[in-house]
Amino acid sequence: MSRIITIAGKELRLLGRDRAGLLVLFLMPAILVVIITLVQTNVMQRSGLVKTRALFLDLDGQAVGSALYKLLNTENLHLVGGNKKEKTAFDLEKAVRNGKYQVGIVVPKGSTKILRRNIAHLFAKPAQKNEKTPLEKVRLKVFFDPGIMPGLRAGITARLQMAVQTLSFEAKFSALEEVLKKASAELNVPAEGSPLPAAGLRELLVRPVFSLSDNAATVPSKSGGYNPVQQNVIAWALFGIFFTAIPIAGTMIKERVSAISDRLATLPVTPLQLFAGKIAAYVAVCLCQFLLIALLGACLFPHLGLPAFTVTENPAGILLIVLLSSLAACCYGIFLGTACKSFEQASTIGATTVVATAAIGGVMVPVYAMPDIMQRISIISPMNWGLNAGQSLLMRGSSLAAISPDLYRLALFCLLMIVLSRLQQNR
After folding, report:
1. Which domains does the chain have, with CATH numbers?
2. Tens-place pLDDT, residues 36-46
3. Are the beta carbons of 290 and 20 closer than 8 angstroms?
4. What is the pTM assigned to this prediction?
């Protein structure tokens, strides 16, 4: 352990002399998180026109469910049937809470019967009506992922309201057409010449038979719903953390070129201990990076008119995510240092791959706003694993068990990079 601490101290002293590298590691992500959050907050309030996957659960199984599916399933809103794994409203809410879908829509059982009963009551004769008994409305249940943009949520809600109004009017006009046909037959008057009763038209247009239930809101979130600060702080902190791969690779290449690595090999330390010392030093740097960005979010953002960044529910979980992401970044840097022959090569490959994994991982643009092929590719990005886990804890109130697949992926990535580094070193 003392040898690992000595090696870590040596790495920190070398990094302290590299002022340009320190600016890249600390100043760049700090500036990016402030600028991007300010811009994104303004844009997200005005837009929401992205393709969205919604989980649609038709418990009715009759006319209302199928009609709503046809009205809502458009180019920008792709409905996915939930009759296989998600069989109840609770299952659907859980799927939305876990971030698998941005929206969940439930058509309750018996919706078609309620609609037909309301329409029949609407056109019944006064003597047949029982005004003391209130009519039951078809209450659709809608759930939103807490990480969804407010503009997108408003757009989907408006589209859903238009769909139920369209279905309601179609049902009313169909019933009205039947009433007019019967009246025309009784009076021996052609149907096209029958006058429309003014009282019936007034009641027809103002009497609703649909409503969104009280559940038509964001799935309950420990953080209070969508918050661009909660999303961007963790996203750009991860972006800065993965940039530590470049200085790690640079120090390893300099040691190899200057023959310092040969002298280190004569010391009573193993290659794995050398790796562990470098990792320990730069993991400490990564933790400082996250602390700086978190402090910016907590202290500076409220003065800029933004919500404050908070970690109140599961700080240990966030620390675990940052720690595993830091290990992944450091292990990737060690792999670059063993695989690349020059610092220029390592910096070019490192910067390109970090930016690419950030882009496809959802740091710059939310994954659900990407094309389908990009959404499928995003699963290969280590930054996507850390970001998904962080958003689940900060915005969805998930447990550690729920984010364990992403944590396992980060751990396996670390192991893979170390194995590849040793193989490359032995060549």
Report:
1. 2-43+224-425 (no CATH), 52-218 (3.40.1710)
2. 565 455 444 44
3. no
4. 0.62
